[in-house]
Amino acid sequence: MSMSKLIYSLITSLDGYMAPADESGTWAKPNKEVDAFMGDLKRPIGTYPYGRKMYETLVDWSTMNLENEPGVTGDHVQTWKTADKIVYSKTLDKVSSSKTFIKTNFEPEDIKRRKQSSTSDLSIGGPHIAAEAIKAGFIDEYHQFIAPVTIGSGNAWLPDNVRVNLELVNQKRFPNGFIYLRYQVIYNHIQGRSSN
């Protein structure tokens, strides 16, 4: 059995930010077509490692009434509810969603063990926790949804001073200007090896 993949997937601006400094995010809202495509990608995910801010952004899904959110959004919510969620935080002491666990420190070796033992892929959320996994050499694929906007500054989706060789294995353009890029890691220069 092959090892599960750790996927890093985010919506970013054209200039590589996932959120502006003031944390306003309306520029990044996908339309139904983009949302449906993202839902198809997320359906096989079994575990979501998160930082605190990303978890708090999504935790309202745990109490969302699916009858009021028909179609694609409801599909997203149901997928998220059934997946395991790991929140890495030194300040969060309780969670309000099911199948959610808190860990104080991000431990790359724990992610490696989960990849080896899981029958489904993992999708990491949030640039700060993802940066730790990138620096450890454990990201297998990068999924970038580029919104047709530049925001000038904010939280960059990739860390500085890390080189990773990638192969573009899929791409898709959407009528609303979004572009999806899927890259596989060929070689991680931090670890000196392929992540697979």
Brief characterization of the structure:
With 196 residues, the protein is an alpha/beta fold.
Q: How would you characterize this protein structure?
A:
This protein has 196 residues and is of the alpha/beta class. The chain has a single domain, classed as Dihydrofolate Reductase, subunit A (3-Layer(aba) Sandwich). The chain contains five helices and ten strands.
Please describe the topology of this protein:
Blueprint: E1 6-12, E2 17-19, H1 32-42, E3 45-51, H2 52-58, H3 72-82, E4 84-88, E5 100-103, H4 108-117, E6 121-124, H5 127-136, E7 141-146, E8 155-156, E9 164-173, E10 179-188
CATH architecture: 3-Layer(aba) Sandwich
SS strand fraction:
25-35%
The 3D shape can be described as: globular
CATH superfamily (homologous) name: Dihydrofolate Reductase, subunit A
Structural class assignment = alpha/beta
Number of domains: 1
Low-confidence stretches: none
Using the coordinates above, name the CATH class.
Alpha Beta
Task: Characterize the main sheet.
Answer: 8 strands, mixed
User: If you average the pLDDT, what whole number results?
Assistant: 83
Order of strands, widest sheet: 5-4-3-6-1-7-10-9
Helical run tally: 5
Q: H/E series, N to C?
A: EEHEHHEEHEHEEEE
CATH topology: Dihydrofolate Reductase, subunit A
- Subunit arrangement of the protein: single chain
As a whole number of angstroms, the C-alpha radius of gyration is 16 Å
N- to C-terminal separation?
A: 13 Å
Share of helical residues: 25-40%
Annotation, overall tally of beta strands: 10
